[in-house]
Inverse folding.
């Protein structure tokens, strides 16, 4: 056996050679990945440049980030419908599209006739059936919403279906699961779907009582490998409850004490949620069952009790439930927002906790303002996500220059996702006005075609203005240099936030 001895200079030369080779391999991987991003995945230019910056400025970490965050969901149907369901749904959609083209849809609110093209678009791109026999209650405060929800859960007779992005094992979370377990023990079917990343701190013991009573739970896109989730970027951000196929809840409230205003940092929690009765609930039900079949083992056998026949006596509000996700060709909720904005003649009232729009939305808002429409945007005055908060502020200057009015909500934290046009049509749902909600998350919004309901939502917006500070162009222009720096860096990363 021959022992090799190297001088310190020779050891240094060998180590340098190894480091150079390793660096060369990393750079080759970066170049290969950059080629993939640019030529194969066909991303938009802003997203491409954002990822190229990450790859070239932080080569190794950037590579890992791309593997986890940058993968695209294949443009294939994740959701599979059972039996003849696909054929029946397609036939129903085509029939309503034909009725819209032929002017055969009767609107309980005549003013909605002018939004028929938007109804048609949502129907075509999102299979969002238009229904007109709905009743809607609006909740802006957590205790009211959860008191109503727990009362409806107590009255359930056949099934309770829930999907939430965030579920916490705190006082509210335990109240909810205890109520669900009691109904499961009575023989009511309970299915509880939660997002694995949004509810990452939820302990397994949280569901023990529910499971012991016969209920079921499932996690959406869970980690198959400990501490590594290659689908971490694609989350189920929906918040839906369907009870007996007749009552549905949709909006911004998750499950946690902070949504009752009990978090000292956020204080009062200002959100918007809807309680819906009528045929619009059936669209929530269909979406829940598809989400459940994607996440749980085994498929739900369709039951006619999931889709009860409801008459016209419930209400007269027109609605469409529009779902979107990263597996679809269109960005349905964003497209519907843009359609609404371009239809505005007098006012646009928009509330969102996060404002990271793409160029199409920015253009729509600026054109509306320049056309004489009173465009108002309301955002929270306090941050809960650093980069998103500063990216949000980076867009406000452009809008202020073009006459858009911006309001910073100061009475707690604003988490509502609402859009009201001319006090006639409105949207309330789970999607924030940001690239993540439109491209990466699975979302659902209720589009409401009813003057009275839209006017009520506009009055709620105007009441919120009383506890908000208007951010004028003069105030914005005087912001500190450090804030400008944070905005610039965050804006560069906004396409991948």
């Amino acid at each position: 056996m021959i022992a090799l001895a190297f001088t310190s200079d020779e050891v240094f030369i060998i180590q340098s050679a190894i480091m150079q080779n390793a660096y060369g391999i990393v750079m080759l991987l970066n170049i290969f990945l950059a080629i993939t991003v640019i030529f194969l995945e066909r991303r938009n230019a802003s997203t491409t440049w954002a990822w190229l910056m990450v790859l070239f400025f932080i080569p190794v970490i950037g590579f890992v980030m791309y593997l986890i965050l940058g993968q695209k969901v294949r443009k294939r149907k994740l959701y599979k419908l059972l039996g003849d369901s696909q054929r029946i749904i397609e036939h129903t959609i085509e029939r309503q599209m034909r009725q819209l083209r032929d002017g055969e849809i009767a609107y309980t609110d005549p003013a909605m006739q002018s939004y028929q093209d938007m109804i048609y678009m949502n129907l075509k791109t999102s299979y969002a059936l238009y229904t007109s026999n709905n009743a809607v209650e609006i909740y802006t405060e957590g205790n009211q919403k959860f008191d109503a929800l727990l009362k409806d859960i107590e009255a359930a007779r056949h099934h309770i279906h829930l999907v939430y992005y965030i579920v916490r094992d705190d006082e509210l979370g335990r109240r909810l699961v205890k109520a669900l377990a009691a109904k499961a023990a009575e023989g009511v079917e309970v299915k509880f779907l939660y997002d694995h990343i949004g509810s990452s701190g939820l302990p397994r013991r949280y569901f023990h009582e529910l499971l012991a009573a016969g209920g079921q739970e499932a996690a959406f896109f869970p980690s198959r490998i400990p501490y590594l989730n290659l689908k971490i970027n694609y989350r189920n951000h929906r918040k839906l409850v369907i009870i007996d196929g007749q009552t549905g809840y949709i909006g911004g409230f998750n499950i946690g004490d902070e949504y009752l205003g009990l978090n000292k940092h956020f204080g009062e929690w200002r959100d918007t949620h809807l309680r819906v009765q009528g045929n619009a609930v059936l669209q929530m039900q269909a979406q829940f069952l598809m989400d459940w079949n994607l996440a749980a083992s085994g498929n739900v056998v369709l039951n006619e009790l999931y889709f009860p026949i409801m008459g016209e006596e419930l209400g007269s509000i027109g609605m469409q439930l529009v779902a979107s996700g990263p597996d679809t060709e269109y960005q349905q909720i964003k497209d519907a927002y843009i359609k609404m904005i371009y239809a505005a003649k007098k006012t646009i009232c928009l509330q969102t906790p996060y404002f990271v729009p793409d160029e199409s939305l920015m253009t729509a808002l600026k054109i509306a303002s320049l056309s004489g429409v009173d465009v108002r945007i309301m955002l929270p005055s306090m941050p809960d996500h650093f980069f998103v908060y500063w990216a949000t502020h980076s867009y406000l200057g452009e809008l202020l220059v073009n006459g858009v009015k911006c309001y910073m909500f100061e009475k707690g934290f604003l988490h509502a996702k609402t859009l009201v046009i001319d006090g006639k049509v409105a949207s309330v749902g789970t999607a924030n006005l940001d690239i993540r909600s439109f491209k990466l998350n699975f979302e659902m919004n209720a589009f409401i075609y009813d003057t009275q309901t839209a006017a009520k939502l506009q009055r709620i917006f105007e009441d919120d203005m009383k506890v908000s500070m208007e951010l004028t162009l003069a105030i914005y222009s005087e912001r500190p240099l450090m804030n400008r720096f944070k905005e610039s860096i965050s804006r560069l990363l906004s396409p991948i936030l």
